[in-house]
Amino acid sequence: MTTEQLKVLSFIKYFSGAGCIIGASIFIISLFASGLNEGFMMSIVGATILVSSMWVFGIGLMFVLIENLSARRQNINQ
To answer: Transmembrane residues, as ranges (predicted)?
Structure first.
């Protein structure tokens, strides 16, 4: 992997990690704050942030891996 790809992976890792921590903390805090029976809007927001961060990580990882595989294939064909 090139240094540019490692920089992108590092950014994706920290960005999605921060999103997962923020989303999970909002979700857990809202469950205790609402009393587990009403007002689940913040729980939905926290879960949405958590899942979105996971999607960002997965899609970003796939883009970097596809780019790496295509670069290898071009080097083999030359």
So the answer is: 12-34, 40-66
